[in-house]
Every structure is written in structure tokens, then in C-alpha cells.
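Quality-control log, excerpt.
Job 1 of 2 completed; input and output follow.
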Amino acid sequence: MLPLCSSAFSPSNERFVPGTPSHLLVNATLWTGTEVLEGVDVLLKDGLVARVSATGSGGALDGYVDKIDVGGKWVTPGIVDLHSHIGVGAAPGMRGNADTNSIKAPILPWLRSIDGFNTHDQALNNTILGGVTTMLVLPGSANNIGGQAFVFKPRKTSGNSPSEMILEPPFEDGKRVGGRWRHMKHAMGENIKGLHGATRMDQAFNFRTAYEEGRKLKVKQDAWCAKGLENTEPFPVDLNWEALADVIRGNVKINVHSYQTNDFDQLVRLTNEFKFHVTALHHATEAYLVPSLLKKAFGGPPAVAQFATHARYKLESWRGSEYAPLALANAGLTNIMKSDHPVLDSRYLLWEAAQSHIYGLNWTLAMDSVFSAPAKAMGMDHRIGHVVAGHDADVIVWDSMPLTLGATPAQVFIDGIPQLDSPHVVAKPHLQFIPPSSSNAEAGAFEAVASDGNPDRSPKQFLESIVYTGVRSAFSVNDGDVQQVFGSSDLSSSFEKHELGMVVIEGGKIVCVGLECEGVDLKGLTSVDLKGGSILPGMTSFGAPLGIQEMPSEASTQDGAVFDALGSDVPKLLAGQVIKGSESLSFGGKDLLIAHQAGLLTSISHPSSPGLVSGLSTAFRNSASNILAPGAIAQDVASLHVVIGHGGGGGRSYGGGSTGSISEQIRALKNLLLGAEDGTELGEWFEKVSKGKLPLAISVTKADHIASILILKKEVEKKTGSKLRIVLEGGQEAHLLADELAEASVGVILNPPRSYPGTWDTHRTLAGPPATKHTTASLLTSKGVVVGLGHLTSDATRHARYDAAWNYVSVPSVFTPASAIALVSTNLNKLLGVEIDTGLLAVEGDAFGAGSRIVGVLAGGRIEVF
């Protein structure tokens, strides 16, 4: 094995930019990567951490030094992402930016991610805004061996080339530098089966034959070396297999996309057959169920690089558990949280770590999972992942403790160079991080393992009456608006300054809210201490296909796409008709029950279609057992839904089955509103819309398309004399027309809640703090636009309360606690024409903090206790 870089003090950083001034961070609360040090100074010089010392004790400084008093703020190493496709799957996602996968063959160890890396990826700047300073850029998972990976930093360089962005170039002056780790991507399971028609049996043989080629090359090379000066033949070289020979030699870090136990077992046998070590399993949904198997891998168990809660999107991920990090830690395995960018926006990788702590992982291990553990897995912990003398000066100053909700960089240094120009940092409202109950988390982890990844998530305990004590604030819905009915609206002060009250519920109704409940008999009532928590309205899910789809990749688990109502291929029996969401529903799914436990008591879902008209949405109770259960359907018809855009809905096939342009879609919509389909069921529903009796929800993202819709609205209203009730879903560029939307009384449901420039139609998104003062939601709200928050995927709906709170803590000048809650409750109901009893939630701990949890809900007139 070649000698590797040691962890000794590095004398220089080859990425240092001459002329960069030194920076002294004064009075920091420092997370070094292993421990917390309070009251320290950190000197950044020549691209390195030059010194860490107690504040004021560092002695004299040479030359000019920019002193920055951080005022006790948290300072950490830069975040390290072990699994990213940034640059090779560049944003905006267009054909010319797609270089993640080659589908030439299942075995491609000779490919290299650096050859597809696009330095113009808009996500590079975005990821810096989240504190990411290093990422391992992997090929995709379309192949058993997809190719070699490279470690990049996202900092823009003077030459703006991929080679300049590599952390440790493998070549200097045209010569290979010995001892530098190489990296390679392997993948197992469904992805390869789908693309190459291979079974897992084929997969195993693919690996074994490839590694045999690598082994034979290594044998030849070793034999050549053994001859020494007696060699007369050239050194054996084979570009196809040299990387695998280097794997067996021990010089390559292997990262494996895998989910299921049978894949792990196959991989463990392969490592022992060819004697190589696996650095990390990625995704690894079932890893927490079989830690003993992983420990049998050659060279020791791999780390597990995973999502916190993103699961159930295909069969392989069906057994995913939020308690997996805790279960793995209990088994002695290393947790790493990763983004798989752009599957998850790497800008919010820190949120994955925070979630792992919410569900029981020790907070130091949660921090380790995005700082030092991935650096070690890369073999780069001699220079990144820690703030110690001699390491690269990749350092983040945070506006709050990193695991608190909405923690945002106040400054990001990469190679000692500040990356944020005039960052927008606000004083966040006071947030108390309530550590999760270890007993609850341990019980959740035990149940997840004991049930083989399929715990019973159905409601189990019901009460008619209860008293909640330790209540800091209470909110209710009055005349369709969220209002605070108890507690101070000033959440910027500490908990100790607030008097805690109680809320009494009897017979499914609140009978008392206040400091005391005189005249209310509390004897015999179950009492639950909310520990400074809150009573909130129940929330609503919209955007995700809850109740209509369980696994996107499995046709048998979903309703499927309905015929384009305007297409030529519509069966005669369905011609001119519109499908209702209530005709599509399935109950009892995991995501439905998880959403319910997360406080989303109601969902509004509609059919999907390849054409302009999707169908009619319905509002239903997430916890219902079936469609015939009492109260399962809260409102049979909510809104009529259409799609304007490129692919994924609008612009696919309508009117004779041909692909329609955006202009044709707009014209078709206008004609429908003016009676083009009179005499049909489709025409009847559009007549209700044109008369203002039914909301029209339009899925649209681009500002120019939104502008055309606003013109359409004005023209139709002039001809009909009625006001259209239009709401936009998606709306990533809606901020560019905030005043016009407010004037037209058009609301916006932002989906996803935090925008990402994933397509050309969304590339002008508003970044939000620290780059801009406003989030998209706060800017629209400040202009008077009614805003709701939706979700693209079913598993993301559980974050609704956190998404609302994120806007509140990021822009408290615009949002109050009540108006933030409305983003995921009453605003959605208003915009989509739903009139329902929202129910109530009992939240333990700070309802606007990441550590809080829902301990009960009031739905359908009864109390469920979690």
C-alpha cells in the first residue's frame, strides 16, 4: 500500500490565494470537530488554521489581520458532503448539464466525475450558503461500477476550472502524487436492474468478473516490481482495470449505493473474496437492521451514509426509519448524513444532522455526521473536518447553535477566503433546543428493529378528555384565521420569563385555556406536561400525492396518471369528464400515518395527468382507515387543478395528443374558462371556476408564465363579470411578480417550501438568508399575497411545522408565530376552498424549535395520545 498523508501539521495549503488577508475570529464558541471550546480565538492565515487559543492569549500578530469579534457565536469546521452529484448533475437541470450517469455498460471503473464537472452549476453558490465547503462528487448509480469520484471545494477560483476546485489534485506537473486517496462509486439493486435489465445474480457476476480483471492486473504489476532491475518488459498498464487493481492494493475509497440486506450480504462476500475495504454504504435503508452482517466486511464495517427521514420512495427504501442513526450508533457503527445532491439540496445538509438528533442520536454524533466523520471517510481528515492548527481554513460562523432550527451561516471561509458578501443575518427569536426524550427515541429505535423496519404507526391510545399543563402559548382558528389565544406573542425571550398555563379538553372540545381553570373539575383527567410547549391548529398537506401514491417507482402502489381530458386518446366512456381525487384514494399508507403523527391531520390531493387538466382535489383525514370510515372525506371537492409548464404535467399532450407549447396551454385554459367545453362535465366545472364558485389551482413556476396567467385572469373577468379564485402552486419565481399578484388577489402555494433552481423555469429563485433579506414566502407575504407551503414528496410532509417555523425564525420582521402556522394550515385551506375543522395539536417543547415533538392531536372529536 502506498504511504498516505499523515495528520501532522500541514505547512501550506496549495489552494491558498496570494494576497488573501489573515482573519482573526475573536471570542468564539468553537466546535473543533471533537469538542466545544468557549471563549477562543481562531487565526486563519495562508489558507490554514494557524492558531486556536483562549481569547486574548494568542500573542502578537504578524502583518495585517482582519479582526472579527463573533460575540460568542458558534464556529465550526466547514460541512463535508460525502455524497453529492453537484457539478455533474448541474442546475438548472437541462440536457447539457446532465453528466451524472453513463449507461454504456454496468461496469465502468475507468470513468471519472471530474470530466463531467460543470463549474457553472448554480448550486455551487447555494451550497456555500448552507455552510458546505467540501463535497465528494460521485458518478451516478446507473452502473454496478459507475466510475471514479473526486473531492471538490465549491469556492469559485480565478481560472474557474474543475481542476482548480479539487481539494488534492492527483497530479502535479504531470506526475502522479503518491499517497493521495482515490475514490470510486459502486451501486447495487433496483437502479441497475431497471437500466441494464440485470438481476442481482447478474450484478454479483458483474462485480466478480471486474474484480478478477483488477486482481490479474495487480498480480502482473506486483510480479514486474518483484523483478527489480532485471525487468526488460514495460510496466503492465491497462486503463480499463488499473483503478480496480488499486482498489485491491488498498489505495481507493469505495462508496457503495445500496439499500437491502441481500445487497449487503453480497457485498460483504465480495470484499472478503478480493480483500478490499468499503468506506461507506450509501442510502443503506436496511443497515440498521443488520449491523452484525456489516461487521463481517473485510477490513471492518463501513460507515453508513444516509438520509435522516427521506424514505419509502421505492421498495428498497420501504423499511427506512428515522431512528436508524440511533440504532446504528447503539451498534457501534459510524453515521454520516449526506445529501445525494440534488436529490436533497446540499445547502440544507445540516438539517439532516439536526433531524438525526431529533430522533435520538447524541448531539455530538449528530454534529460529527456532517463535519468530521465524512472527512475521515474521505481520507481527508488530515486537513478538513476539524478546526485545529494546520488544517485548511474552512470555517463557518453560525448565527445560532448549528442544530437549532434555521441555523444560518453568518460567514463562510474556504481556504481562509470569506465567501459571503454583506451576509444578511438577523437576531433570531429565542429558540430552546429541547433534546429528544431518550426513552422515547430508544423505544422508537427498538420498535423499528423489532418490527423488521415496519412498525405499526396507526393511532393506539384515545381519550375523550385531557389536561395539558406547562403550556407556553395556545393558538386557535377563529373566522378562518390563526390567532394566539394564550401566552405572549414575543417569543424572543427565554422560557423562564413566561408564565405557563393549561388547556383542558373535555368531550373533544376545549373548555378552558389560561393560567388557571377555575370551575373546571380536573379530577380523573389524564395530565400531560408540555414543558413550555404549545397548542396549535392541525396542519394541512398539499402538493405531495398522499393517499394517491405510496411509492413513485412502483405502479401497483399508486392510482396512476389519468387520461388527458383534452386528448384524442380518451376512451369514449370518459370523454369530457373530470376525475375526482376522492375516486383515487388509498388509506393506511406509512406516509399518511407519519404525516398524521407529525400534525398534518388533513391532506388535499388531486389526480395527476400528462395533460393540462389534472382533476379535482379532495380533502381527507390522514388517519382514516378507509374511504367509508366516518369523517374520512372532509370535503369531496376542493379545487380544479391544471398545469402550465414544460413536462411533468403541462406541455405534454392535450388537444389531439400533440405536445403543446406554453402559449397553446394558456390559450386552451382561456378558452375553457370562456365556455369552450360547454355541455360536458369538464365544461360544467370550468363554468363554476369562471363564476368564482370554485378555486382554480394552477401549477406553474416561471415568472413569465405567471404574468400570462395574470393577463388571462383579467381578460376572463372582464368578459364574465365574475372574479376568478386563482391560486398558483409551485411559484418558485413568484417573488418577481409579488406586487402584481397582490393586486390581482392571487395566492401562492410554494412547493417546495424552499426553492431550488432545478430547471430553467425556476433558475431565478430567491436564495433567502444569508444571501437575501427575504425568503420567497416572506417577500410575498410582506406584499400582501396569501402564501401557503406545500411539498413535492410524501415523506417531506412531516416537516411542515418546521418549514413554517423556518420562515418565522429567518424573517421575524414579517412573520408572527400565528402567521407562520397559517402557512401550513388555514392559508392552504383558504386558497384551495376547503372549509373544515382543523383540529388541534399538542406540542411538547418550543413549537418553533427543532427539538419539539407532537405528543397528541385532537381530530374528529377525539384525542389521540402519542
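Job 2 of 2 completed; input and output follow.
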Amino acid sequence: MILSAGYVVLYVVRLLSRSRRRKMYLQTIRQVVQKHSIFIKKSVSEKWSAAASTLIQCPLVKGSQRFTHKPLLEDDHIAMMSVEPKQVVNLTDGWTEYYRPQGEYREDSTHEDVVLLLEARRPTNVDTFLEHELQVSPAEKVHILAHGAAVAWKSGSSFGIILHCTLDEFVTLSMAFCEDRLTMDEDLEVHSIMSVKIEGKSSSLVLNQEIDTDTAKKSALKPKRNSADTDTNDSNAGDGNDIAKQLAHLLAPPQSEQDQLTDLWSNESLASNSSIGRTSELLDMIDAESQDAETVDRSMMESGAGEELSDFELAGSSSSTSGSLSQSWKFVRQASVAKPPNVLVYAGKIDSVRKFNKVKKIMQQCLDSESYVIYHLKHEELETTPWIENTVLLVLASKKKYTDANETFMKYFRAGGKILGLGSGFDQELVEQTLIRKENWIVNLKYKTWSDVSLISGMYSYDISKTIAEDSHVTKLASDTNGNVLIVRVNQETKGSAGSAILSQVLFDKDAGDMGVTPEMFNALKKSNSARFEILGQLLTTLGLECNTASPPVLTPAVLVAREEISKQSFLKSIEKRLLSGVLKFGKQTLHFTADDSVPAEENLLPVLTEESEPFLKNFNKGKYCENLKSRILGNTVMYVDVIPTTMTLLDGLMFSVPETTGLIAIARQQTQGVGRGGNNWLSPIGCAMFSLHVKLPADSNLGKAVSYLQHITSLAVVYSVCKQEGYQDIDLRLKWPNDIYYGREMKLGGVIVKSTFMDGMVHATIGCGFNVDNSNPTICINDLIQLHNRQDGTSLTSCSTEQLIGRCVTYIENLIDQFQAEGAESFKQMYYEKWLHSNNTVTLQSEGNKEVKIVGLDEYGYLLVETPSGEKISVQPDGNSFDMMKNLISMKIR
């Protein structure tokens, strides 16, 4: 009791101390921030008079160093000084514009009156830094992006970030800085904060372009990480993933602009979001003999080893298809486009994140989780993000009518898009409505075999006799017991398009908790809950989507497996000093190393069984993996897990501690939250080979200077893992720059994601790879291609297993790395070109006035090298907003 009271007293004292310090900081900063610069540094032992000039030296502020300074306050934590005149940062002096995706910090023009320069450096003592990072709880950490809008960054011996923030946020950042709670993620620590003025314009790695409707139809949406993912985090902790990707991984001071660009690209070389191709050649190639097949497998047109997949324009009615493929491929011929598995939800402008989460939750329970990914389409993205061409379903959940939004939705509908309206203001663009009540109310719905289902409805009914949209037809689907039509289907009848919309006044995203109802009404709504999901599933099926109400897989522990026992023991020995009762915490991940196989797995808590447990290894053939693993180091020590959210974060807290010979790899049978490019979801069904591999490279080595090539090495290793087997050389696996594995020119089989960071002269890279081995759905897999080859060539090649190909792939990764380190890029490029799809292809550079150029190869950093008709060579990288990296390229450097 006394101990508890003591904790309470300490907690109260701590709060009061922070409150007093905050008031002191706020009062001090407010007095001078508008006229002078405020410089804040960790407190030092020297007196101000002796140390002031040293304290305020900042290599990131250019120009005159002649100034006057005045101590403002000095407590036990920081030294704060007023500097006059106000220091100026010229953004034209090597600063790079910070790309901030939608959903990050929102600026407030009425209070945005402070500009900060944060100087960060690599820690001088890595062990001390990591130990401190692990000691501070996530709830206590304050991430700089949670309290400011990043404007620009600059790498060098001192790493700089320009941040816009309010006065109050300045105080929050200063408080966190003085208490060692300020974080940037990864391995950078803030050394000083200064309020400054900025002038000039920073350079941009991504050219800002206005995207009109025509451009949108030629491009594709890059789905962002849902803002809800950030909103649900602790406000102090922040997310920080984006700045970690853009900033913290930059390795060393670049020697040139190209070096700087290469550092950024090397920092995270990711799999392409999707790919766009034509299937006419493929359909002919599958079986030219069969001209009467009536169906084409839509699953073949969707996602492969991960992420989102492309639009594939099907051939016209004369295209031939094959009956020689696996019987599991149930083809469905479509007259226009087979859409990628992206479901977008638009929830208006006000309270849109909360509304989106409500809709997403119910959609996830109805749709097949392995076939679709649900994203938030924000209002500000309607015209700036090319989403129309790459959306299989648009869900409209905003009852307010926005004219500009409705015009865009109508364009999508007329282009053949599918829409589900949930009490949407867009409804009146298609069909006449009648107001029957001034608020949401409970109705008894009649739909097909369902009758008297209690559901929440909007304020209108539909008049199916009054169609508004031209060339369209309205059909009644459901009504209430009073005869009010509450659900209709609108089909477009214009030749050449097949727009279809289901408009519903029944608000399937709302349940009993969303209305103030009597106990009787509450009970009625709850009793109808299962019918609510069943009816929504039927409507989605009517729109051509695949529904699956199966429960998500249960997370399982990982098992530590090694090719040789000495590797496992060496690994455990290397981390034992970091374990507290067997527990290791880093970031949002916690690993519990234990021999007890009864410890349950949770989303952020993964038990790692140090003894091989048969129940959790029954789906992993260790013998097959080790038999095919011929590497010296890579892949030696395996963390295998049946079901995990993602393997990409699993190695983050381990890579700096493990010995050189550990060869740590994480292998998963199934992922529930796989990660793709830019934070996109990565679809990970059973039968897909999925692993994350730690690779360590000297920074001054051939590959250390061009880390971007790791993505190409891994992609080629996947192809070699199959095609280098005797008899398998004719399996048509190809490479699509920068990091996709393809069947022929048409269908994606896999992708690669690479994250890298720098520590003590070494580049630590985590390679994430996924490719389809034995999963025919939702797309195509390697074993399907082997069966097809057997039928066409009369061979009897055996199917491959995931363990077999992962072992072989890791072996080739190590071999190719060794060759690259010894011989440089040229010999590797020749092998890469033999398997890639792009030799002498022409592409359009939209950033160069739609100039058509010829692809000639890779440059020294792994960028795509193209040549203009005049002979000018340009290095380009993919547009981050495009699914198809070959449709929209950005010029990076003219040679």
C-alpha cells in the first residue's frame, strides 16, 4: 500500500515538474522567437561565456557567423540561447524537398509561424544509443513528424531537417529533446534545434505535375498507407516510417547530386506496386489451338506474390484462350478490363478517417482477404492521384454532395467502374430520390430470401421510374415493408463500357451502436447482424467481387531453426545481454525467446521457440530447405513462423547484434499484413515463398556503393532458383525493372522490397521477397507454369516446394553478391539483361514533355538508363504515384 502511494506521489511530482518546465519554456520562447533565432542544445558543464560560440556553430546554416547571443535559460537538461540576427537557411544550398504523403501532419495556416532546423548525427556509441532507445517506452517517445510538417532535408556529416510547426509544438519538441524522448526512428539522434528563416527553393526528387483526367486514365494509383494507421498510434509516438525511409537511411555525405539521389533510392528499393500489360500475346501463347474457350481466369490477372496488381486489358472477342491450364483456373471473359484487387472507400471531407474505418471493417469481413486490399480515397486525392484505372470497386460512404467529387465519380462510372453507394450524395447523379424522413431510421428490409431484417437506413427512397444518368437502366433490388425502394442497381448501357452501381439507402456500415435506440430496437438490430453481412456479401457478389467470411488465420509462434546447431547457439549468445527474462523489445515489436511452446503469439508479441517444436514446424520441411541451401553464410539461421503479420520488421532489432556468420532469415508460411512498396499491403496467401533476409555489406565495397542493385540481384536469384535446375531452363520467367518477377511479359509472379541502413561503416540491408510457388489463386504460380510446360513439351518435371526454392534463391543471392563485389556491376548486368523484359523497348518520359526514349540498360547505380533520339542519355527512376513503372518515369540526371 505504501509502495503504491509512493508511486502515485512520484508520478504527480513528475507531472508537476513537466508542467512547470513547459510553462517556463513557452514563456521564454514566446518572448523572442519572432525576432531572433532560438538555439537549443543539450546542457554542458562549461559556462555560457566560455562555450557559447562552440554551442551555436551549426554547419547547416550558411553565411555569416557574426552574431550576438544571449542566454535565455539553462536548467539541468538543456541550454537555450537567443541568437541575433535571425539565422537564415538557404534551401537552394543542397537541400532536398521532403515528400510528405497525404495523411501525415496537417498544416494550420493560422498558426504556422515557426520554422525549425533540427540537426541530427549518427550516434557515437551505438550500443548506448540502442540501449537508450529500447528503454524509452513508445508511449513516452515524441516523433518529430507528429509535431511538425517536414519541409526539406539535407545529408552530410550533420543531417538536417527543416520543420514547420506551431509555437506550442516547438515547446513539445524542446521538452522531449531535453528529456531524451525525441526520436527520428532508426539510428539518428537529434543534437540541436534552432528556429530559423528559410529562403530559396529546395530541389525535388519527384516532379510535381498536374494530373488531369486523361493522365489519370493512363496512370495508376499508388495506394498510400491508410491515415487511420497513423491516427491510431499514440500522439506522442507518431508513425515516423516515412521519414525513416526518406531520411534516416541516407548513409554518408554524397559527393554529387547523383550520389545523393542514389542514396535515397538505395535506402529503400522496393517492389513495384503493380504492373500493367496486355494479355493478348499470353492468351495466344497458352494454347493457340483452342478458339472456343468461353472463360478466362480472372485470378490470373490479379496480384502475385504481393502488393497490388495491374490492369490487364483483355483481348477482344476473337482472343483465344486455353483449356490446357489447370482446372482450378476458372476463367471469366470480360469485355473490357480485369481490375486489380483494390477497393477504394471515399468518406467525404469531414470525419473521414473514422467513417473510413467503419466501412473498412465491415468490408474486410465480407471480401476475400487474399484477393482485395482496401484503401482510403481522400477528397484531396480525387484529382491529384490517378486511381480511376486501377480500382475494382469504389465504395461511397459520404451522404454530403460534393460537386467536384461527383463529377469524378461519374467519369469512373462511365469508364466502366463499379460503385457501391451507402447513403451517398452521389446517388442523385444516377437516379431520382424521394425524401421520406429527416434522419436515419430503422427499417425492416425485404431482399431475396431475407424478410423483415432490421437495418439502419438513410432518409431517402429511390424512384426507379426516373433515371437521371444517360444510357443507363435502374433495377429495384430491395425495399422495406412499406414499399419504399431502398436498394437499386444502375447499369450503364453505353456500347464499350460496363459501368455498374449498387446504390443503397441501407447503411450496412452502421450497427446498433451508431443510433440512440430503445433496448427493443437494439436487440432487433443485433439479431439481424448476421443477415446484414450476408446481404452485403450478396450485393458485392452481384458486382462481381469474391466474398469470403472465413475468420483470419491465428498468429503462431516462431521457431528458431539452424542448418548447424553452432549457428543457433552463436545467435542466442549474441543477444543474451539484451534480453530481459527472455524478452527483447525494439520499435513496436517484442520477441520472447523461450522453450515454452504454450506462449500465445500476438500482433506485436512474437514468441520465438529456441527448441524445435514439431507442432509449429509441421508446415516447414527443414530437410528440403537445408538440402537446397548451398550458401556459406546467408540463410544459416532461420526464424520460421506459420502465420505472422509481416516478416519485414522481424529482423530490425537483431541485425546489429548478430555475428557475421549468423545468416539470419525469417520465413513465413502466411502473412496477414505483408508490406509492399511505400507501405502498401502485400497479399500473402499460402503457397507463396516469403522471406526476409539480413545482408551485411562494407559501405566502401562495390555493392555497398550501389545498394540499389540488391533488388536486381534478388529478383535474378528468384529466376535462377527455378531456371538453373536441370530441365527447367525453358520455364519463361522474366524480370521487370526494378524488382518484379514475371511470367513472360504479362503476369507478375513476385516482388522484392529492400530496406537498408548504415552503421559503423557497414550497410545493413533487409531483403523482403515473395514469389508464387504453389498458389494458383488469386493469380498464377511457378508450379502452374511447370505443369503447363509438361503438357506442352511432353516433359515430366516435378513441382517445386517453397522450402526448395527459398533455399536455392538464398544461395544464388549470396553467389551473385560475391560476384558483384569481386567484379563490379558490368558482369552482373549482362546476366540480368538475359532475363529482363526491356531491351530496346521504348517508353515515354512524361517529365520530359512526353518524349519517347529507348531503354539501353542500367546505369552504375541501378537506375534505368534511356537514350533520346538525339543520343542524349538519361537516368530515370519510377514515378512513385504510378502502378506501372514503365508508364510514368521521371528524369533524374542528364549525362
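Post-run check on job 2. Residues 563 and 636 are 6 Å apart (CA to CA).
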